Amino acid sequence: MFLFLFTIINLVFLTLFLIFQSPNQLPPSSSPTTNIIKDCSTKNDILAIEYITLNPDPPIRGHALNIKAAGNLSETVDQGSYVDVLVRLGLVQLYKGKLDLCKEVEQNFNLKCPLKKGIHKIDSDVDVPKEIPMGKYTVDAQAYTKDGHRIACLKAETVFKL
Ligand SMILES: *[C@@H]1O[C@H](CO)[C@@H](O)[C@H](O)[C@H]1NC(C)=O
């Protein structure tokens, strides 16, 4: 039903789950971190985000979106982890809920928990459907482990135009 919603949530997920295992070093980021996603994590969070880049930035309806991100997990992330997500279109709340982090990762990105500690990066393309209603979207997402240790905090804000 709210297909566009899942695209937005996926976007946030992609940035939260730094999927592909990479060797010891963080790759340099070619372009600056996007302005539309703010990292509201602190030093105490499990995930230290190095960069998030989008192309095109901001995303455009009906166009593929490339997302590159890298970060460092200080602990393994396993079953029972969850994400509190709040999505608004303008002032209207479109979605508020708790999503199973491992389940989402497995369904959307063909990955399996546990996500090991260390450096992870993603380089992924998603389709942004042209059916997404125009307007200003804001997404607040906070991820936690089963025992309530925060993994990351992200806030995204973007406007989809004609
Ligand atoms: C990743 O984080 C760990 C501590 O959690 C740290 O020891 C390590 O140096 C970090 N790696 C990089 C490349 O920043």
From TrEMBL:
SUPFAM superfamilies: E set domains. Residues 1-25 form the signal peptide. The keyword Cell membrane does not apply. GO terms for biological process: sterol transport. The keyword Transport applies. SMART domains: ML. Residues 37-158 form the MD-2-related lipid-recognition domain. One of its GO terms (molecular function) is sterol binding. Keywords: Lipid transport, Signal, Transport. Monomer. Belongs to the NPC2 family. Catalyzes the intermembrane transfer of phosphatidylglycerol and phosphatidylinositol. This is Phosphatidylglycerol/phosphatidylinositol transfer protein.
